[in-house]
Amino acid sequence: MHRELITFEVGGQVFGIDIMAIREIRAWSPATRLPRVPHYVAGVVNLRGSVLPVIDLAARLGWEPTEPTPRHAIIVTQLGAQVCGLIVDSVSDIVTLNNDALQPPPTTANDSIISFLEGLAAIEDRMVMVLNLAALADGDEFGEAA
């Protein structure tokens, strides 16, 4: 069985999301900050008249927060019950992955990012970390922000 992933970069690392979970890919637009939200919520943007919460994916993964520039992109996806945007450094391409090529993430002493991964796959000459969107939405903090 095959599945298609959109690949993108965050913090110099390559990630993938199932193409069926993606609504659209937008150019960067500045987000309006909100008070009392988790550190990884960059704010909200206008999506054709709707308020779209924007998550700084690097910060959500436990890395340094992104300093967005016009070169960044927002991937609009369904994250739990909420449609939201994910700030990424750049969008790469669409790849086809055999389901048996997806390997479970290794267990490490610091597994903060591992809990957000569905698995890892070697595609061409790079390692792609496939995100588990449901895990990104887990936690009370996200529900309060959105």
Automatic annotation (TrEMBL):
InterPro entries: CheW, CheW-like_dom_sf, CheW-lke_dom. Residues 2-142 form the CheW-like domain. This is Chemotaxis protein CheW. It comes from Novosphingobium humi.
